[in-house]
Amino acid sequence: MASELTIRKPDDWHVHFRDGAVMRAVLSGTTEHFARALVMPNLVPPVVTMNDAVAYRERIVASLPDGSDFTPMMTLYLTEATDADDVERAYKSGAITAVKLYPAGATTNSDSGVTDVARVAPVLERMAEIGLPLCVHGEVTDPSIDIFDREAIFIETVLDPMRQRTPGLRVIMEHVTTEDGVRYVQSHSENLAATITTHHLMINRNHLFQGGIRPHFFCLPIAKREHHRLALRAAAVSGDGRFFLGTDSAPHVDGAKESACGCAGVYNSPNTMSCLAQVFEEEGALDKLEAFASLNGAAYYGVAPSDETITLKRQDDSVSYQAKVKTEDGDITVFDPPCDLHWSVV
Ligand code: DOR
Ligand code: ZN
User: Fold this and answer.
1) How far is it, in rounded angstroms, from Cα 59 to Cα 133?
2) Which ligand 1 atom minimizes the distance to the CA of 16?
3) How many Å apart are CA 69 and CA 37, to the nearest integer?
4) Can you list the alpha helix ranges (DSSP code H) found in the chain?
5) pLDDT in tens, 122-161
6) What CATH number did the domain enclosing 250 receive?
7) Mind listing the pLDDT tens digit for each residue in 219-229?
């Protein structure tokens, strides 16, 4: 069995850095192992204009650990008031890499999101024209729809009609969690890709309730049945260029997670590469890890893969990782997968 693996430095195509004290504390968890990351815009208030994105990027860069050559790639939060000209200017100037669609009310800080995609049609058409990718949080928000069905119903009732109405729009289904999502992506050869998170490859919905309620496994979209997890794993290890890593690392301080109404989000940046090596080893597909983590996303976004590399090393004893990250606002618990890990980044 391979005991060392060197791959191009990975990119994280979906991360939440937050702002202020939390941002300063979590940045190094990403910059140590990743060359670039696509930074989600759901701050309070959200990153909605080019100026917001430029200012947020500057705050991130000013907080990067010394000597880091990490590149944050920025997104705009799509609202019903988004100005297509501002979006185009932001893209053409290099200030943003993608626009993020949150259905209003779908998840953390999504109140300013979109209630009806018809209302953002002019922006979507402009994006299709200029080749600017749309990252989609793919869940319907109707509270009467079962939470485990919201992704599948979104694909049928929102995503597919939107793509048909907007030919040429480049779409990324973010954090796909179902077999339905995997099949939808596999059956469309153009302008469609999906990110898969670390945790959705490792937990199913049973893990949320194993021996009691597990707030640190709660995220949105929520983990689904085992057969969905297996479909995600098969897609991730397949080498298919339409699937790539977006950790959806989403830090919340423990007080906000371990609460009567806990926030959604799993913080996994620091141990994602250990987790992924474990998953790919279990699947007999370590040779596909580089495609998933370092090549496929760059190709879809039209950028060259990193010139740098990282090396992962396997040990027989399980590796330990830092359980919590301290911030001025409180501790943040790192994703604790329900299996031993044997790989670490050297
Ligand atoms: O679990 C999640 N947390 N899902 C999201 O879509 C948002 C994220 C967050 O920002 O906390
Ligand atoms: Zn997210």
Assistant:
1) 24
2) 10
3) 12
4) 20-31, 50-63, 84-92, 121-130, 150-154, 160-165, 179-186, 226-237, 254-257, 272-282, 289-290, 296-301
5) 999 999 999 999 999 999 999 999 999 999 999 999 999 9
6) 3.20.20.140
7) 999 999 999 99
What is the spatial distance between Cα 252 and Cα 16, in angstroms, rounded to a whole number?
Answer: 10
User: Whose alpha carbon is nearest atom 3 of ligand 1?
Assistant: 265
Minimum CA distance residue for ligand 1 atom 4: 220
Ligand with smallest separation from the Cα of 18: 1
Q: DSSP states of 27-45 as a string?
A: HHHHHTT-SEEEEP---SS
Q: Which of 149, 248, 317, 329 is catalytic?
A: 248
Catalytic annotation present for 248? yes
Which one-letter DSSP state was computed for residue 345?
A: E
Note down the domain range covering 259: 4-345
pLDDT at 172: 98
Cα(161) to ligand 1 centroid in Å equals 25
Per-residue pLDDT tens digits for 186-218:
999 899 999 999 999 999 999 999 999 999 999
Domain count within the chain? 1
What is the C-alpha separation between 298 and 164, in angstroms, rounded? 25
Distance 2 CA to ligand 2 centre (A): 33
List ligand 1's pocket residues with C-beta within 6 A.
Answer: 16, 42, 107-108, 137, 219-220, 250, 264-265
Nearest-atom index, ligand 1, CA of 251: 11
Residue 142 DSSP SS3: coil
User: Residue 74 C-alpha to ligand 2 middle, in angstroms?
Assistant: 13
Q: Which strand ranges, in their side-by-side order, compose the sheet holding 36-39?
A: 11-15, 36-39, 71-77, 98-101, 134-136, 171-173, 192-196, 243-245
> Judging by beta carbons within 10 Å of its beta carbon (0-12, 13-18, 19+), is residue 62 exposed, middle or buried?
exposed
Ligand 1 center from residue 186 Cα (angstroms) = 25
Euclidean distance between CA atoms 51 and 203, whole angstroms: 38
The answer to whether the predicted template modeling score (pTM) of the entire model surpasses 0.90 is yes
